[in-house]
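subagent[fold] <- orchestrator: predict structure for attached chain, return C-alpha cells only, no commentary.
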Amino acid sequence: MKSSSLLKGLPPEDAPEFFDTIDTLFLILSTTGKIILINRVCRETMGYSRKEAEGKSFLKLFFKAKVHNLIKSLLEEAIEPPYRTTYEDNWQTQNGGERLISFTVASLRDDNDSTINYTVTGLDITRFRKMEEELWDYRTNLEEQIKQRTAELVMSQSKLSGIMETAEDAIISINSAQQILMFNQGAEKIFGYSTDEVLGKSLGFLMPDNFRASHTGHIQNFGESGQISRRMFERSEILGQRKDCSVFSAEANISQLEIEGEKIYTAILRDVSERKIIENDLRESLAEKEILLQEVHHRVKNNLQVISSLFTLQSNSTNDPDRLALLRESQHRIQSMALIHEKIYQSENLAQINFQHYIRDLVTEIFQSYQTSSVNVRLSFELEAVSLEIDRAIPCALILNELTSNALKYAFTEQKSGNLNFVLKMENEQQLVLTVSDDGKGIPDKIKFSSAKTLGLRLVRVLTRQLNGKVELKQNPDCLKSRGTMFVFHIPLK
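subagent[fold] -> orchestrator:
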C-alpha cells in the first residue's frame, strides 16, 4: 500500500492515540525491523509499555530465535506484490508466556514504490484455539461416554437423560423393530421434528426413500454381528431427511444392547453438511494450488535450462580454457538447481523431494560430463530414503555439485583409477549425515579448508552455514585405506 504522510518516518505526536483506537494488535516497523509504534491492544496483550517496546527489534522482542529466519522471510515477502503476507505463530509476552497470534505484515511504500515502513496487524486467537480443542475433546468424551454407558441405559435413564438432552448431536434409540424409543433435543434441532412427532415411528421415517432399505439391512447385519458398536457404512456417513424434506449428510455411530431379551440400538448422528461443503471447497482450492505449484516448478526448471543453454552458447564463442572452465562450472551449478525443480515437478509431494534419488541422478550427470577415458573412476552409493524440503535440498545439491566436480577434476590426475563414494543416512530423526569421499591424491597441504579462497570450497562453507550444519574434512581417512579426502556433513532437519 502507498504510505500516507502520517507514516513517512516516525508518526506525528497525535498518531499513537489514533492507532490506540484500533481494536486489534497494530505495529509500525522500520525497514530494519525496529518497532516505531505499538498500539494499546498490542501493549495490553503482550504486557509491554510503549517505552519498553518502541525502538526494539520486532523479532527479538516477540519471537524465539528458532523462528527469526521465518519472520525475516515474511518481511522480505511483503516487499514484493501483493505487498502483504499472513502467518500464524506464538508471540512471547513480557512475563515469559505465549499468545497465539494470526498476523499480517504489509509494506508501506512511497511514491517511488520503495518500502519505507512495515505494518503488522494481528489478532489474538489463543482463546479461540483453546475453545476448538475443548469442543473437540467434548465430542470425543461424549461419544466415549455413550458407548460405555449404553449398558446402563434403562437403570440409569435419569442420570443419562441430562447428558443426552444437552448434547448438540442427535441421539436416537430404537428397538429391534427399528421403532424410535428416544429422540433427544439435539435430534429435534437437526431433524426439525418434536419428540412426540417421531416416537413409535420407524427409523426410516428420518431418511430419504432410496436410503431406507439399505439402512434397514445394515442395522439387521449389525445386530447379528455380535459387535457392541460400529460406524455406519464404510465412511461412517449416512443421509438424513429433515421435516422440510431437505436431505443432509451425517456422521453416525451405532451401538447395541440387549435388555430383557430385546435388542436396543442407539445411534449418534452429527450433521456434517456444512463441513462437507467446506471440505469440497478446500479440496478444489488445494488442487488448484498444487497445479499452480507444479507449473511454477516446471517454469523455474525451464528458465534455468534456458540460462544453462546461454552458457553453452557463450562457451562456443571463446577458446580460453580458463573461461570455458568457469562457464562449465556455473552451468553445472544451474543444472543442479534445475534438477531439483524437475524432481519436485515430477513428485506427488510438492513440498519435499526424495533426495536419495536426486543424488544418484545429479552425480551421474556430472560424472558423464567430466569423465575421460584416461581415468577409470567408479561411483559408489549408500543412500537411505530421505525427504528434504526445497530450501534444504538446493543448498545440499550445490554442495554435492562442488565436491563431485572438484573430485573429478583434481583427485585422480596422478592415477589411472579411483573411487568416488556417497553416503546419505539419518543419524536420528532430526539430523542428516552426508558423506562424500574419494581415494585420490587428496587436497594439497597448503590449502586449508577453513580459509580456502577457491570459489568451490568457499561455496561449500557458505552453504553449510546456511543449513545451520557442520562439516568435517578428513585427509587420508583410515576407512579409505589409502590417501584421499572425506567430507562429512551434519545437517539438522529442524
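orchestrator: received. Logging for downstream: The longest strand covers residues 247-259. Residues 273-315 form the longest helix (43 residues).
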